[in-house]
């Protein structure tokens, strides 16, 4: 580690496969990353790039079968989450790792009131009494900005707006003061005004609680405003990783550059035409032996068809701790 401190989460060589009637789908391919205490790591990429599957693999949220984790380590402190028992993993979920899903209406149980759903992890993981859990639930609802919190403990999910339901989901995820919060596109289903409120809430909670956050999204504008570091995924692999300012100022992978060009610009006398990335993301029916982005890449050359690029550092820091990229293309390669 650059500063000598151990990361709160360290993932190495993660591989996840889905077995289907039509064959295997290699959804996550040799993914490695780390998460510092108090850091917000943004994970970006198109739908199907492996973002959500990677994060669900970490804490056992994938149905097995058809999913199978073929390789890797997921170190949360001194625990390898891929090697512990199912009971121990259930204790980790909620207590040490909180998860906020994209659609709160399908994530919250419609037949239980929100007070019960917030209190459940408190009673399971922290051993609180019913009265203590209710008091803590009120504190959590107030923390996430829900007015008249005590009165609303008895309300059901359908009695809350979309933005309020997402706040309830965040309250549940924060209930046991987890070390890591994973948010899987939590603002995608919300309108722009509510999105801004949720993002501001996350910034405030991060300052108050100091927890580490993984924020999964396809919206680079969101990442620019909240992330410390960005991990770009494509074809189930990490193709570029960098501090957020470095990534926006100096993107190196052709896919990252293409993503940034798809962001609408309103500068100048008239807005530029919105750019798109031609083609479709690959369906990974085999472990990659060539560059997954080659069919859509303007820099493609012979090596791209013959060899899957490995991540290489672009600065003096080790891979994963500075700016690194998985791409064969360099200015020297272009000249050659």
List the helices and strands and how they pair.
Layout: E1 9-20, E2 23-35, E3 40-44, H1 51-58, E4 67-76, E5 79-80, H2 86-95, E6 97-100, H3 104-107, H4 114-126, H5 130-143, H6 149-152, H7 162-174, E7 180-184, H8 192-209, E8 212-217, H9 220-226, E9 229-234, E10 237-243, H10 244-249, H11 254-261, H12 302-306, E11 312-313, E12 324-325, H13 331-335
Parallel strand pairs: 3-8, 3-9, 6-7, 7-8
Antiparallel strand pairs: 1-2, 1-4, 4-5, 9-10, 10-12, 11-12
Helix pairs in contact: 4-5, 5-7, 7-8
Explain the overall architecture:
This protein is α/β, with parallel strands linked by helices. It is 34% helix and 22% strand. It is built from 13 helices and twelve strands. The protein has helices spanning 51-58, 86-95, 104-107, 114-126, 130-143, 149-152, 162-174, 192-209, 220-226, 244-249, 254-261, 302-306, 331-335; strands at 9-20, 23-35, 40-44, 67-76, 79-80, 97-100, 180-184, 212-217, 229-234, 237-243, 312-313, 324-325. Strands 6-7-8-3-9-10-12-11 form an eight-stranded mixed sheet, sandwiched between helices. A hairpin with a 2-residue loop joins strand 4 (67-76) and strand 5. The protein is globular, with a radius of gyration of 21 Å. The model has no long low-confidence stretch (mean pLDDT 85).
């Amino acid at each position: 580690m650059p500063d000598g401190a151990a990361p709160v989460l360290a993932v190495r060589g993660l591989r996840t496969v889905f077995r289907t009637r039509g064959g295997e789908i290699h959804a996550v391919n040799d993914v490695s990353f780390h998460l510092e205490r108090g850091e917000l790591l943004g994970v970006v990429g198109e739908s199907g790039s492996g973002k959500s599957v990677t994060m669900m693999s970490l804490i056992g949220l994938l149905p097995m079968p058809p999913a199978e984790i073929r390789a890797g380590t997921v170190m949360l402190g001194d625990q390898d989450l891929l090697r512990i028992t199912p009971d121990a993993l259930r204790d980790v979920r909620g207590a040490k790792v909180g998860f906020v899903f994209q659609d709160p209406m399908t994530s919250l149980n419609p037949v239980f009131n929100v007070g019960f759903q917030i209190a459940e992890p408190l009673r399971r993981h922290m051993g609180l009494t019913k009265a203590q859990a209710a008091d803590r639930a009120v504190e959590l609802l107030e923390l996430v900005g829900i007015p008249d919190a005590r009165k609303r403990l008895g309300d059901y999910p359908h009695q809350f707006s979309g933005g309020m339901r997402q706040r309830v989901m965040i309250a549940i995820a924060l209930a046991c003061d987890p070390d890591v919060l994973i948010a899987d596109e939590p603002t995608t289903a919300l309108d722009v005004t509510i999105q801004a409120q949720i993002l501001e809430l996350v910034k405030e909670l991060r300052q108050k609680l100091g927890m580490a956050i993984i924020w999964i999204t396809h919206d680079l504008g969101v990442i620019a405003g909240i992330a410390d570091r960005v991990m770009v995924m494509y074809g189930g692999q990490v193709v570029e990783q960098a501090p957020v300012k470095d990534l926006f100022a100096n993107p190196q992978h052709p896919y990252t550059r293409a993503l940034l060009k798809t962001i609408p610009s309103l500068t100048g006398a008239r807005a530029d035409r919105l750019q798109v990335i031609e083609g479709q993301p690959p369906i990974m029916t085999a472990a990659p032996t060539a560059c997954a982005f080659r069919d859509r890449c303007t820099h493609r050359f012979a090596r791209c068809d013959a060899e899957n690029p490995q991540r290489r550092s672009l600065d003096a820091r080790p891979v994963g701790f500075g700016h690194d990229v998985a791409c064969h293309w360099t200015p020297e390669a272009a000249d050659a």
